[in-house]
Amino acid sequence: MAGIRTPRKIAEMGDVMPAVYGEFERIAERLERHYRDMQDLEFTIERGRLYMLQTRSGKRTAAAAVRIAADMVDEGIITKLEALARIEPAHVDQLLRDQYDPAALRAATRVAKGLNASPGAAVGRAVFSADDAVAWVGRGEKVVLVRIETSPDDFHGMAVAQGILTARGGATSHAAVVARQIGKPCVAGCAELLVDYATKTARSTDSGGSFAEGDWISLDGSTGEVFAGSVPTVSARYEDQHDLQTVLGWADEVRRMQVWTNADKPEEAALARSYGAQGIGLCRTEHMFREGERLDIVRDAILVAFEATRAKERRAAGEALDADETAVVARFDAAMAKLEVLQQGDFEGIFRAMDGLPVVIRLIDPPLHEFLPSHEELLEQVVRLRTLGTPEADPEYAAARTLLAAVARLREQNPMLGLRGCRLGLMIPDFVKVQTRAILNAQIAVKRAGGDPRAEIMIPLVGHVNELRVTRRLLEAEAKAVEAAAGVTVDYKFGTMIEIPRACWVADEIAQYAEFFSFGTNDLTQMTFGYSRDDAEGGFLLKYVEDGILPENPFQTLDDVIVAEMALAVEKGRGARPGLKVGICGEHGGDPASIAKCERIGLDYVSCSPFRVPVARLAAAQAALVSTAERDR
Amino acid sequence: MAGIRTPRKIAEMGDVMPAVYGEFERIAERLERHYRDMQDLEFTIERGRLYMLQTRSGKRTAAAAVRIAADMVDEGIITKLEALARIEPAHVDQLLRDQYDPAALRAATRVAKGLNASPGAAVGRAVFSADDAVAWVGRGEKVVLVRIETSPDDFHGMAVAQGILTARGGATSHAAVVARQIGKPCVAGCAELLVDYATKTARSTDSGGSFAEGDWISLDGSTGEVFAGSVPTVSARYEDQHDLQTVLGWADEVRRMQVWTNADKPEEAALARSYGAQGIGLCRTEHMFREGERLDIVRDAILVAFEATRAKERRAAGEALDADETAVVARFDAAMAKLEVLQQGDFEGIFRAMDGLPVVIRLIDPPLHEFLPSHEELLEQVVRLRTLGTPEADPEYAAARTLLAAVARLREQNPMLGLRGCRLGLMIPDFVKVQTRAILNAQIAVKRAGGDPRAEIMIPLVGHVNELRVTRRLLEAEAKAVEAAAGVTVDYKFGTMIEIPRACWVADEIAQYAEFFSFGTNDLTQMTFGYSRDDAEGGFLLKYVEDGILPENPFQTLDDVIVAEMALAVEKGRGARPGLKVGICGEHGGDPASIAKCERIGLDYVSCSPFRVPVARLAAAQAALVSTAERDR
After folding, report:
1. Which of A47, A78, A455, B510 could potentially form a cystine with A82 if both were Cys, beta carbons 3.0 to 4.6 Å apart?
2. What ipTM was predicted for this assembly?
3. Interface test with A, best of B154, B313, B365, B383 (most A CBs within 10 A)
4. What is the pTM of this model?
């Protein structure tokens, strides 16, 4: 403390003017006790007399903020609650980001300095256009995108770059706003930098330093500094940060809401658990579909899924299938059986990592075409082969045509509002059956090995109670078959996402079939605003935020209308099922301002990405303190 | 009346058993007076004694129903209100559909008879697959699609056919449900028909009649009959239907809600007015963009719209433009000026047709790519030319590449949730300015010619009050400029669509800037359910309705949650602006069940397609009667 608040030159004052210095020390201590915080003091001494000019709470780095708070509690100046109120969630976030190695940074050559527009360290090779950024990244390079200023046309380059550097524009410029939105470090408005697109070079008029396309540069988005070369970074290790752990321990004593995590793999789950996650709020099964050999199996299943399902329905109705239909069913069932084995293994890993804690597993959600090759690439291939006069029977041409036709059948005008979520399971019931078997058999296996697996199965995109009712019936029949085959009973919970606006209005009906709700606020925001996030964030939404039409990006912080919809769902849901467990697993679950809103409407937990878990622990504690204070008022 | 309820064989009874016949006549009349409706009577005579077995209200054709109701009022048996309650809106609909010429029908050869699955007359050449249907229609032919049964794979063929005929399936079969959804006549479950896909022929096992691909056939979806050849139809002329006009006149005395129409052209407006429309509730300006030479002008404007807008912004900020930028601005302004002249002419025509009645004009709404060539066709063209080794400078190749790049930039993942509606006007303000000038100058011109034009300008897709506030400011500035140039003031109203779920929750804020609301229930349903209508109706939504997951198609009849959102908006909107005028212009505005829901939440008017106006007049009257009865209870 003393070292921080009394730099050496003030300490020297003690030798020169001992009386005045003594007086200064007494006033400073009194002010700190009064404001219960480190103070930045301004004063002057005229003719041996001390005049205090101004005092305000001191600015500090993240590490200092946490350190000071912990020290002040130790010294009895403030309580734990006051310490918690004083630390900003952004501080916790900063402590967990990779940072430049301090020694390396001292040795590095600073080329220029601009505005610290979006925090974090970005190291990459300089490129001077968005198209170049995409091209270099396509070759496996890391790049920093350097522009005089950015416009919506640069978005594709910003999205692939490590960081963004602009010569023009302030904290609300296009570059700055987009960079913060997509979580990329950015130094903006670096006016001393002369950027020349023709020669693909940049030169500082202040330092004289320069770099050209392909040269390594290192940005510090937290300070606005730009360094030549590739400055090494050090990863921030949570386990080394004892002050942070202490403070978050106090947060855990105070907060009412639990903090869970969104994790699809055992290693993510383990990381989040080390950060204090108390469960998995969202395990996306389809992420498991995309790896290596699995994608081929998934594609094989998808290509015949509808045909096979119709054939199975006819068979169930007593009709005989012909040889073609029998073959299609066999091909589909074989692919699904392989998937079941792979998914069971995945779930076993997750259950082991989260032993004793709840794991919410969401059944398959995205539109099926996301697992197939792109329509555009297939079309190009087919047109090329056709133009070359390739014979119809040519194997490559025939395969491409078949695949193109399959992809064309699955294509939708607005896939976000199309065949996905529970709609998929109702059209192709085998998706629900196979995933149910994989989850329950994984539970049985882990439990037999002495573990404590706690599955909660979650149905996505429910808008009408009948969707959940029918899916539940399907799932329970399959679960009973698994239990009968294994000769055991399996504990699992059954619940639903609330992410369709309609679901909020009929949450009382839905709660009759759901043991828990989890708000999918990404989709709820998309549909309530009528914004496709993919289209809006690089386009009109950015301009809306820049121009003040929207106060903030509703995909970052929960809009109050979304909160009103959620409150309606909580009220109706708990009205129909007292004690209904309600959480949030949209990205807002890691945003402090949104966490405060979740506290106000009485959610049981927030779930966020592993790296946001510590931030969420603090934010949930602060939200609880505010709620308590409001109740006491 | 007598002729209908006493067919000749019963009349003959009077000669044979005069006493019993006299008793029968007395009982029949008493029953009709009691039930106040035409009765179907079942009786038997045993040993000279009359036994009445059953009585029930008689089934009747649409013409008979209207005729009987009018006659019973004339005879003093029922009141006008009872007559209104008794006629079904479907009767009115049937009276306005084209029907087969009765003489021609008597002369026609009936081939077969199935279920009357979806009403109306369909005449076309027989085709036996959906792909054939599309191919024949592509050559300018009218077709009737003949299938053993239909599946979702047939949807593209059903959509282009005049009507659908199936050998299998009942009233809830795929063919029947889809046909009703898309408004096509359908005869389903025509079991006597042997359909052979291999030879593309069909033969009736009952009549022995047959037809092959390309033969003309005529379906009557109201009776289930199938005729050989092209049976001539007669159009149903409203002006000849005096009974209907009488009954609808009573409806007009009773109903509280006005009935407006959705019309984009003067001739549609005139037709709707002849049917009794009291205003235009939706005039879609973009439909005017698609005709003939206009499309080229629109495309020219769109291709440079963003570049020109950015250049104009820079110019407004005092920056100098280079030659390229100046040229782009000039090209854009020239195209927009041409459009302005054309649109002003359109509006003048509409104002003249609706002289003295309100005309709600919606500013441009759809995503811009809808006006450009398809991405797929352009991509095929570019890949073909590339594969052929076409030189880069080749004019066709260069033009295709330029256009493809432009279309690719405008493409969106989910255009329904993308850059459209008011978002477009906020990104490219010239769209708002040019349309405002065209509307106001059209009003000035029509008024100077002695007319009484009443424009109401409507902003689509508003979700946040600031969108409306900023658009209104932009529009009013332009309106003032027009007024100043013309030296007159122009009366117009300013209002908004309510079609984004969020807008319902903040309708009080929005009402501060809107003089009227119009519910766009198509989009409101899409977003509240998370359904893309284009994708859902041919796919999972159909299965949902077939399987009873949804009680009905929410795009046909307003779902109760949509009604709850609308009620919230009405309450909040009128709370902030008493007397706020509120209507509906989604397709639900022509659906009787939905009209009843609109009455309950107090809308001022419903707006529907011209042909639905008479139906809506009756339905609005019936809804008012029910409301009055409910209030009186």
Report:
1. A78
2. 0.84
3. B383
4. 0.85
